[in-house]
Structures are given as structure tokens and as C-alpha cells.
């Protein structure tokens, strides 16, 4: 006796199709205006970082616009001054280091010629790659319209503290608007804590590394120290990766300097993990190292250098949003 066969029909409603189409079009639209989104997000980060200083000057009876002007352009002046001092020797030493890398490997691993890797051909393109990265960064900032727009957005958000509240008030009820404004203020505090925490960590780790490498006599101390400071954004894994080139350069000079560079790296990491990070980052949202590394890779794949720079603060924002939603539930 044959059993009755049941037929299952999977139907998709017109509403689902329309929603899917509009959602895909919306994603396409966001991709088209990604430069604007990057500009607004950078403006939000800068505003979050400078807001406490502006509020402090306002409490000192300084007019709000003047306080914003003083804080904002002092920040820009300090940033430009620091870059103008560090960049020329950094670029020079980085190019020299990239050219010397194949000889460093051959000196440390003399049997590398017997291996399948040709170190000379592997690293011969590094100076070109370094120049391309520098050109890419300069190309981003040479886009006058984008750069000026980002500066304008940052200053406007800093001056118009209640701009979001005024805009939301036209669309939502008073209670809903208040909740959104409070949440944006919370985001600003989290981004502010993360921003200055990371800046201080990078400066401390980079400075300690530079001083240590200079004292023990390691060549190319500046690019190696800058690399150590930048990789501080990746918890645990970053300092380990940054130590590798310093140790290799040390061993290329002498066994003593190689061991000294390794000892310096361990010392800086111990100070960082047990003293510096607990003091500096105690108010900051903790980021999982794996999530941070994934964010950096995805950001670099999607938007290059700019994506790498903005990936971690974006993770801070997303994590804060998820925490708030889970806490409310």
C-alpha cells in the first residue's frame, strides 16, 4: 500500500521580495557614499576625543565657540607638528630597513640560499610597497574636499552639541529623543576613553621601545619603535609581532644585541601588561584580541589603510551597542 506523499510549498511573499530589493539597494547606496560615512565617523571620533576639554573650558567661563576653536585647532596644530617632526626620519629609516632586510636574513640564516625562498627577490619590492603606502596616505589627505569636509564636520559637531537632539526631535517623541541622545553621549564617552587610552599606550610603548633600542645600539630604532607603538592596537599579539623585526635586526648586528632586543621586548610587554594597561585602559571597553585582529583584516580588505584605522573604533561602537541592548533585555 503506497503511502501518501506530502508536498511542501515554499512561498515568498511580495513584501519579502520588495524588502530584499530595497535592502540590497540601500547597501549599494551605503557603498557608494562610503567616503561620506568615513568622514562622518572620523568626525565623531575627533569630537568624542575633544569634548571633555571643551566642556572644561566652558566651565571656566570661556564662551563655547571660543573654547571649541582653542581646543580643536590646538589639537590640529599639535598633530601636524608631531607628524612633521617624526615623518621625514621615519620614512628615511623605513626605506633603508626595507632595503637591508634581505641581507639581514642572509646574515642570520646563511643556509637560506639552499631553501626554496629567494630572500632577495622576496624583499626587493618592499621599498616600492613602502612608497605606495606613503603615496596612498598622501593621496587620501590630498583629497581637499574630503579632508576639509571632515574638518568641518568635526568642528560643527563639537560646536553644535545639541544638533542630534534638534534633528531627532523632529521625528521622535521627547522620551525617545532623550534616550537616543543619552546613548550617543555614552558612545562618545566610550570612544573618548578608547581613543586617548590607545594614544597613551602607543606613545608609552613606542617611547620605551625607542629609548631601549637606542641605548643598546640597535639600528633603525625609530621605525621599529613606531611599529611597536602601532601594533599596540592589537592586544597580546601585536607586541609579539612587533618584537620579531627588532630581534632579527639585533641578531644581524651581534648575538648579544639580538638577546638584548629580546629581553627589552619581554620587559616592555611585562610593564605593559602588569602596569601600563591596567592604569591607562581601566575605563575602556575591553576588546577581544581575535575580534580586533579580524576587524583589522576585514577593514583593510574593504577600505585599505583607512579601513584599518577605523576598524577598531567601529568595533568599540558596535560592542557598546550590543552591551546596551543586552543589558536592557
Provide structural commentary:
- With 329 residues, this protein is mainly α.
- The protein is 82% helix and 0% strand.
- The protein contains 12 helices and no strands.
- It has helices spanning 14-32, 34-59, 64-108, 119-123, 126-142, 144-159, 163-168, 174-216, 221-230, 237-253, 255-280, 289-328.
- The protein starts with 13 loop residues before the first helix and ends with a helix.
- 20% of the residues are buried.
Write a compact overview of the structure shown.
The protein has 329 residues and is an all-alpha fold. The chain contains 12 helices and no strands. The radius of gyration is 25 Å and the shape is globular.
N-to-C series of helices and strands: HHHHHHHHHHHH
Largest sheet entry = none
Q: Low-confidence parts lasting 5 or more residues at pLDDT below 50?
A: none
Query: End-to-end distance, in Å?
Result: 54 Å
Q: Helix content range of the residues, please?
A: over 70%
User: Count the helices. How many?
Assistant: 12
- State which percent range the strand residues make up: under 5%
The structure class reads mainly alpha
Overall spatial form = globular
Instruction: Give a count of the beta strands, DSSP E runs of length 2 or more.
Output: 0
- Quote the average pLDDT: 77
Determine Rg (CA atoms, Å). 25 Å
Amino acid at each position: 500500500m503506497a503511502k501518501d506523499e506530502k508536498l511542501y510549498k515554499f512561498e515568498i511573499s511580495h513584501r519579502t521580495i520588495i524588502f530584499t530589493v530595497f535592502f540590497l539597494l540601500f547597501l549599494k547606496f551605503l557603498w557608494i557614499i562610503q567616503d561620506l560615512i568615513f568622514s562622518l565617523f572620523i568626525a565623531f571620533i575627533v569630537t568624542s576625543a575633544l569634548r571633555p576639554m571643551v566642556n572644561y573650558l566652558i566651565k571656566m567661563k570661556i564662551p563655547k565657540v571660543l573654547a571649541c576653536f582653542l581646543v580643536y585647532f590646538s589639537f590640529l596644530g599639535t598633530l601636524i607638528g608631531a607628524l612633521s617632526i617624526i615623518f621625514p626620519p621615519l620614512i628615511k629609516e623605513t626605506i633603508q630597513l626595507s632595503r637591508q632586510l634581505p641581507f639581514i636574513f642572509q646574515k642570520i640564516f646563511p643556509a637560506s640560499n639552499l631553501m626554496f625562498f629567494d630572500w632577495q627577490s622576496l624583499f626587493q619590492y618592499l621599498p616600492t610597497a613602502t612608497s605606495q603606502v606613503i603615496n596612498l596616505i598622501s593621496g587620501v589627505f590630498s583629497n581637499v574636499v574630503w579632508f576639509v569636509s571632515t574638518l568641518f564636520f568635526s568642528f560643527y559637531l563639537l560646536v553644535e552639541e545639541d544638533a542630534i537632539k534638534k534633528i531627532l526631535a523632529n521625528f521622535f517623541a521627547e522620551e525617545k529623543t532623550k534616550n537616543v541622545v543619552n546613548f550617543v553621549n555614552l558612545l562618545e564617552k566610550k570612544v573618548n576613553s578608547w581613543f586617548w587610552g590607545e594614544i597613551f599606550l602607543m606613545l608609552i610603548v613606542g617611547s620605551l621601545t625607542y629609548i631601549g633600542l637606542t641605548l643598546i645600539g640597535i639600528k633603525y630604532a625609530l621605525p621599529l619603535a613606531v611599529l611597536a607603538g602601532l601594533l599596540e592596537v592589537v592586544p597580546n599579539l601585536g607586541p609579539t609581532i612587533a618584537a620579531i623585526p627588532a630581534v632579527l635586526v639585533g641578531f644581524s648586528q651581534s648575538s648579544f644585541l639580538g638577546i638584548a632586543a629580546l629581553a627589552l621586548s619581554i620587559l616592555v610587554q611585562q610593564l605593559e601588561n602588569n602596569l601600563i594597561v591596567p592604569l591607562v585602559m581601566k575605563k575602556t571597553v575591553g576588546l577581544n584580541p581575535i575580534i580586533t585582529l579580524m576587524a583589522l583584516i576585514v577593514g583593510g580588505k574593504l577600505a585599505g589603510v583607512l579601513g584599518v584605522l577605523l576598524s577598531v573604533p567601529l568595533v568599540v561602537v558596535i560592542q557598546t551597542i550590543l552591551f546596551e541592548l543586552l543589558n536592557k533585555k
